[in-house]
Write a structure and sequence with these properties.
Blueprint: H1 2-15, H2 27-38, H3 45-54, H4 62-75, H5 86-94, H6 100-109, H7 114-124, H8 132-143, H9 147-157, H10 160-163, E1 171-181, E2 184-185, H11 186-189, H12 201-205, H13 211-223, E3 228-234, E4 238-240, H14 245-255, E5 257-260, E6 263-268, E7 271-274, H15 280-288, E8 292-295, E9 299-301, E10 319-321, E11 330-334, E12 339-342, E13 345-349, H16 356-364, H17 367-384, H18 407-415, E14 416-417, E15 430-434, E16 437-440, H19 445-454, E17 466-469, H20 480-496, E18 499-500, H21 515-522, E19 529-532, E20 543-546, H22 549-558, E21 560-564, E22 568-574, H23 583-598, E23 607-613, H24 617-626, E24 634-639, H25 641-661, H26 669-686, E25 702-707, E26 715-717, E27 735-737, E28 749-752, H27 759-776, E29 785-788, H28 792-801, H29 803-810, E30 811-814, E31 832-835, E32 854-857, E33 877-880, H30 883-892, H31 898-905
Parallel strand pairs: 1-3, 2-4, 3-7, 7-8, 16-17, 16-19, 17-18, 19-20, 22-23, 22-25, 23-24, 28-29, 28-32, 29-31, 30-31, 32-33
Antiparallel strand pairs: 1-11, 5-6, 9-10, 11-12, 12-13, 14-15, 15-21, 26-27
Helix pairs in contact: 2-3, 2-4, 4-5, 4-6, 5-7, 6-7, 7-9, 8-9, 9-17, 16-17, 19-22, 23-24, 25-26, 27-29, 27-30
Pfam family, one: Aconitase
Domain Aconitase/3-isopropylmalate dehydratase large subunit alpha/beta/alpha: 410-893
Domain Aconitase B swivel: 178-405
C-alpha cells in the first residue's frame, strides 16, 4: 500500500493549499484501493471506496482499466460488496464513457448470461464513445445472430442515446457578472504563467481572474441558487487571444455545473457573453462544453439626426448603452423564441447562439457526444442495412448557383464529409471536414491527452497525414514543473502516433522549435486543412484553424473537425513598399487601414484571403500569424506557382532534417509528407494542379486594398495602457507611426523572437550591429535585448553564413542545451541574451520582463500581464514592432526617431515585398 500512503501524504499537502484530493489516473494506485476495499477489516476501506467511486478518472487511463475490471467482478458476482451492488456497478460504468468500460459492457452484453446481458445492453444504449474495435465486436456478434447485439444496433440506428436525453429548457435564468471591460483574453481566464497546472483542474481554477472575482461569483450563486452566472466582456469580445480549453474549463468550474457526480472537477454548460460576442476560437470551446455564448450588442454606435455615426476627438465611434447588463442583473434566455429578456422586455435576438446544431450540443452536454453519436448512428444503420433515421439537425448546406468559390470554399468543398455528390457549398454552410495536419503544443497538450483518454481514443486516425507534439512553450526553462509534465506528455503522444519534439526514449536531441513554424513546414499542400492547439495555428499554405485542446483531440481521434464555413475578406495590395520599411510594418498597416476604411473590424470571425503572391511561406507567415490578433477565424495565402514550389522545397528540406535527426516514427509519417510535397510540386509544374486560387466571380464579405505608398514609417501596435476608456486598452487596434513617440518614449527591454520572425529577422539583427559599429564604433545596449530564434535550423543557417558569430560577440548569455536553465530569469542586464529556440517571452509562462517594464517586442501578445506584469511604479507595457525597431530601441533605451532608424537600416535588405503583377484568380 505504498502508493496509497503516498497519496494520503499528497492529500495532506493539498489541504494546505485549500485543495481536494487529486483525481486518480494511476492503475497501480486503484489496484491498492481495490485490495483495501475487498478487505472488510482494512482501516482504509471506507476512504478507499470514496476514492474508487468518486475520484478515479474514466476513459483510457490505467486507473479506468482497473476500475472497470473490478466493477465487472462485482457484476459477475465474483466479488460481493454491500456498498457497490451490481446495479450501482452498471451505473458507475455508464459514467466512464468508453475505453475499458465499453469492453466490460460489451463482453457482458454479448456473453452467455442473459440476466446480465439486458442491463448491460441498456447501459450501452446510452453510450456514444465507441471505436473501431468496439464496433467490430458488436457487428460480429450481430452477424452471428446475437439478439442483444441487434437490439443495441437498432437503438443506435434510432440515436436513442440522444433522443432519450432531456430537452433543453425553454427558459434559462441568468444572473450577470461583468468579468472585465473591453476585450477579455483567455489569459485572464487561464494565465499563461500557470500553464503547468492546467491538467490539475481544481488547482488551475485558483488562477481564474482574481480571488476577488471568484468570491463575487460565489456570492452571486449563493444569492441566486436557481440561476446560472453569465460572465460578460463589457464593451468587448470574450475570449480573445490564445485557444485555451483551460479558459472555458475555469469558467465552467466556477460558473458551470458538474458533468458527472463520479468525475471530479469536470464541469460543463458555462454561459459567457460579450458586447461584441465571443472570439471564434473560444466559441468552439463553449460548444465543446455544451455551453452558451451570447453576442449581447448592448453598446451601439451613436448616430446623429441624419443617421450618421458620431465620432469623438480621437476619431473613435461614440458608443451608447442599448441596455444594462451590470453585475447582478437577472436575465432570461428563451431557447424557443431565441431572445434574451429582462423580465418582459426583449433585449436582443440570440438566434446565432441557438442554432439547431448548438442546441444539440447543449442537450448532449457538449459537441463531442454529437460528433461520435452521428458516427455511431451511421455505423449502426449501415450494419443493419437500413436508412439513417433523421434525428440530428441536418448539416447546414448553402449553395448559390452560378457563384464562384473563394479559396476557403474550395478547400472546404474538397475536404467536406457527408455532402451530397455534386453539391457545391458556399460560406455559411456548417460541415464536417477531413483534417490533414494536426498540431498539439506542450502547455495545452496535457489537456489534449486527458481529452483523448476521456473519449477513450488510443491511436491517431489514419485519415491524418501527420501530427506533431511540440515542446516550444516550455523551452525557456527546464524546471521541475516541465520535468514532471513534458516527458509524460511526449510519451503519451509518441505512443498515440504523433511526431514528438522530445523523444521519450532519448534517441534524438530535443527540438524546441516553435510549433507554428513546424506546422508551416508539415503543411505541404495548399489544399490542406490544419488544426492546431494554439490560436497562432495560421499557416501560409492551406487553411489552418487555431483550436482548443479538445478540438485537437477530436481531430487526432477521428481525423475530422466540424465547423461553419466562414465568409472571406479579400485583401490585395497596391503601390510600392519603401526600402526602409519591413514587412511587419505592412502587416500592422493592414489592420490600421482596414479600421480607417470600414470603421469596424471586418476581419473578425472571417477568413482573410490575402493575395500575397511573391513571398515564400516563411515570410508570408508573418501576415497569417498576425491574423489571430485581427480576430480573424483564419487566413489563406494566395501564392504564385513558383513561390509555392519554392516554399514546398524549403518545407521538404526542413522535414528531411527532422528525419535525419531520427524523429520519424514507425509508419514513416515524415517521409510520407515529403512524398506528398513531391506530388504537389509535380502537379504545379505539369499545370494539372496549379497553386490554389479563388474564382474570379467568388463573393466576399468585404474587399480591401492595402496601399503600400501610405506606409512611410515603422508601425507599432501599442497597448494604450493609459487610455481613459478602459475598453480600449490592451487591444491590437492602436497602431501608431514611429513619429508618434517623438524619439522619447523609454524602453526597458527588447525582444526579438516568437513565431512572427523568420531567418531574415536575425540577419537584420547582425547587419544592424555591423552598421552601428561602422557608424559609432562599439555598440552598447542601454536596455536588455532578448533574442530567441523560433527554430534550430535558423541558428544552423546563421552559423553557416557568418551572422551568428557577430551575435555571439555581443551576447552576454548564450543558451546551452546540455545545461538548460532550471529557473526563470527575473532580472536582466543591459546586454544581448541569445536564448534557446522556442516561445520565450511571448508565452509569458516561464520567462517574463521585470514588472512595470516597457517592452518593445516582435511577438504577438500585448495583453495585460502576458509578457510583463504591472508594478507599483507603473503599468507594464508590451509594444509590438518590427525587428529593426526593437533592436534599435534596446540599443538606445528608447523608441528611435526616423533619422536614427533610417541610419541604422541603411543598406540592409529588409523583408521585401511587391504585390503580384497579375490578379491571382481563375474563372468560375
Amino acid at each position: 500500500m505504498s502508493l496509497y500512503l503516498d497519496y494520503l501524504k499528497e492529500i495532506e499537502e493539498r489541504k494546505g493549499q485549500g485543495l481536494n484530493p487529486q483525481p486518480i489516473d494511476d492503475g497501480a494506485l486503484v489496484a491498492e484501493l481495490v485490495a483495501q476495499i475487498k478487505d472488510s477489516k482494512n482501516e482504509h476501506k471506507k476512504d478507499s471506496l470514496i476514492f474508487f467511486i468518486y475520484n478515479t478518472l474514466p476513459g483510457t487511463t490505467s486507473a479506468a482499466g482497473v476500475k472497470a475490471a473490478f466493477l465487472k467482478e462485482i457484476i459477475l458476482g465474483e466479488s460481493i460488496l454491500e456498498e457497490i451492488t451490481p446495479t450501482f456497478a452498471f451505473e458507475l460504468l455508464s459514467h466512464m464513457k468508453g475505453g475499458a468500460s465499453m469492453k466490460v459492457l460489451l463482453d457482458i452484453a454479448l456473453g452467455g448470461n442473459q440476466s446480465l446481458a439486458q442491463p448491460s445492453a441498456d447501459v450501452l444504449k446510452t453510450q456514444v464513445f465507441l471505436y473501431e474495435a468496439d464496433m467490430e465486436q458488436l457487428e460480429s456478434a450481430y452477424k452471428a445472430g446475437n439478439a442483444i447485439a441487434k437490439e443495441i444496433l437498432e437503438s443506435y440506428a434510432k440515436a436513442e442515446f440522444f433522443t432519450g436525453l432531456p430537452d433543453v429548457p425553454e427558459e434559462i435564468e441568468l444572473v450577470t457578472y461583468i468579468a472585465g471591460e473591453g476585450d477579455i483574453s483567455t489569459d485572464l481566464l487561464s494565465p499563461g504563467g500557470e500553464a503547468h497546472s492546467r491538467s490539475d483542474r481544481e488547482l488551475h481554477g485558483k488562477c481564474f481572474i482574481t480571488t476577488e472575482a471568484q468570491d463575487e461569483i460565489s456570492a452571486l450563486q449563493a444569492a441566486h441558487p436557481d440561476k446560472r452566472v453569465m460572465l460578460i466582456s463589457e464593451k468587448g469580445t470574450m475570449g480573445v487571444g490564445s485557444s485555451r480549453m483551460s479558459g472555458i474549463n475555469n469558467v465552467a468550474l466556477w460558473a458551470g455545473k458538474q458533468a458527472s457526480a463520479y468525475v471530479p472537477f469536470v464541469n460543463i454548460a458555462p454561459v459567457v457573453a460579450g458586447t461584441n460576442g465571443i472570439s471564434p476560437i473560444f466559441l468552439t470551446t463553449v460548444d465543446v462544453t455544451g455551453g452558451l455564448g451570447l453576442d449581447l450588442k448592448n453598446w451601439v454606435k451613436k448616430t446623429d439626426a441624419d443617421g450618421k455615426t458620431v465620432f469623438d476627438e480621437s476619431g473613435d465611434a461614440v458608443l451608447e448603452q442599448a441596455y444594462s447588463v451590470a453585475t447582478g442583473t437577472v436575465l432570461t434566455v428563451n431557447t424557443k423564441k431565441k431572445k434574451l429578456y429582462n423580465g418582459d422586455q426583449e433585449l436582443v435576438d440570440i438566434a446565432s447562439a441557438l442554432t439547431p446544431q448548438k442546441v444539440e450540443f447543449i442537450k448532449a452536454g457538449g459537441s463531442y457526444a454529437i460528433v461520435f453519436g452521428k458516427k455511431l448512428q451511421t455505423f449502426a444503420a449501415k450494419t443493419l442495412g437500413i436508412e439513417v433515421t433523421p434525428v440530428f439537425a441536418p448539416a447546414k448546406l448553402i449553395s448559390h448557383e452560378g457563384q464562384g468559390l473563394t479559396a476557403v470554399e474550395k478547400i472546404f468543398n474538397r475536404n467536406a464529409v457527408g455532402v451530397p455528390d455534386g453539391m457545391v457549398l458556399h460560406a455559411g454552410s456548417d460541415v464536417r471536414v477531413e483534417v490533414n495536419i494536426v498540431g498539439s503544443q506542450d502547455t495545452t497538450g496535457l489537456m489534449t491527452s486527458q481529452e483523448l483518454e476521456a473519449m477513450a481514443a488510443t491511436v491517431i486516425s489514419p485519415i491524418v497525414d501527420g501530427a506533431y507534439q511540440s515542446g516550444c512553450h516550455t523551452a525557456s526553462v527546464w524546471d521541475k514543473k516541465a520535468q514532471a509534465n513534458i516527458p509524460k506528455l511526449m510519451s503519451f503522444m509518441h505512443k498515440f502516433g504523433l511526431i514528438t519534439a522530445r523523444d521519450p526514449k532519448g534517441k534524438y536531441h530535443a527540438m524546441t522549435d516553435v510549433i507554428h513554424k513546424v506546422l508551416n513546414d508539415l503543411a505541404v499542400d495548399d489544399w490542406d486543412v490544419i488544426i492546431g492547439g494554439d490560436s497562432h495555428t495560421r499557416m501560409s499554405k492551406g487553411v489552418a484553424f487555431g483550436a482548443d485542446s479538445g478540438t485537437v483531440a477530436l481531430a487526432l481521434a477521428t481525423g475530422e473537425a466540424s465547423m461553419p464555413m466562414p465568409e472571406s475578406v479579400k485583401v490585395t495590395f497596391k503601390g510600392e513598399m519603401k526600402a526602409h520599411m519591413d514587412f511587419r510594418d505592412v502587416v500592422h498597416a493592414t489592420q490600421l487601414q482596414m479600421l480607417e476604411k470600414f470603421g469596424e473590424n471586418v476581419f473578425q470571425s472571417r477568413i482573410i484571403e490575402v493575395h500575397i503572391g511573391t513571398l515564400p511561406a516563411d515570410q508570408a507567415f508573418t501576415f497569417t500569424d498576425w491574423t489571430a490578433e485581427m480576430k480573424a477565424k483564419a487566413s489563406i495565402c494566395i501564392s504564385e506557382d513558383e513561390t509555392l514550389i519554392k516554399s514546398l522545397e524549403i518545407a521538404k528540406s526542413r522535414i528531411q532534417i527532422m528525419i535525419d535527426k531520427g524523429m520519424d516514427n514507425e509508419p514513416q509519417v515524415l517521409q510520407g509528407l515529403i512524398d506528398k510535397a513531391n506530388k504537389r510540386i509535380a502537379g504545379i509544374r505539369s499545370g494539372e494542379n496549379p497553386a490554389l486560387t479563388p474564382d474570379a466571380n467568388a463573393k466576399y464579405s468585404a474587399e480591401f486594398v492595402v496601399d503600400l505608398d501610405k506606409i512611410v514609417e515603422p508601425m507599432i501596435a501599442d497597448p494604450d495602457v493609459n487610455n481613459d476608456d478602459v475598453s480600449k486598452r490592451y487591444t491590437h487596434d492602436a497602431i501608431r507611426e514611429l513619429s508618434y513617440y517623438g524619439g522619447e518614449k523609454h524602453v526597458d527591454l527588447g525582444f526579438v523572437g516568437s513565431c512572427m520572425v523568420h531567418k531574415g529577422d536575425f540577419k537584420i539583427v547582425s547587419q544592424m550591429l555591423r552598421n552601428l559599429e561602422e557608424q559609432q564604433g562599439e555598440v552598447a545596449f542601454k536596455a536588455p535585448l532578448i533574442v530567441a530564434a523560433p527554430t534550430y535550423n535558423i541558428i544552423d543557417e546563421l552559423k553557416a553564413e557568418g551572422d551568428w558569430d557577430l551575435l555571439e560577440k555581443y551576447s552576454g548569455f548564450e543558451f546551452d542545451d546540455d545545461a538548460p536553465k532550471s529557473t526563470a530569469r527575473t532580472e536582466y542586464e543591459n546586454m544581448m541574451y541569445l536564448e534557446r529556440p522556442g516561445c520565450n517571452l511571448c508565452m509569458g509562462n516561464q520567462e517574463k520582463a521585470e514588472k512595470g517594464d516597457t517592452v518593445m517586442a516582435t511577438s504577438t501578445r500585448l495583453f495585460q500581464g502576458r509578457v510583463v506584469a504591472d508594478s507599483d511604479r507603473k503599468k507594464g507595457e508590451s509594444l509590438l514592432a518590427s525587428t529593426p525597431v526593437v533592436v534599435l530601441s534596446a540599443i538606445l533605451g528608447r523608441i528611435p526617431n526616423m533619422d536614427e532608424y533610417k541610419a541604422a537600416v541603411e543598406g540592409i535588405n529588409l523583408t521585401t515585398f511587391a504585390p503580384p503583377l497579375n490578379e491571382l484568380s481563375t474563372k468560375a
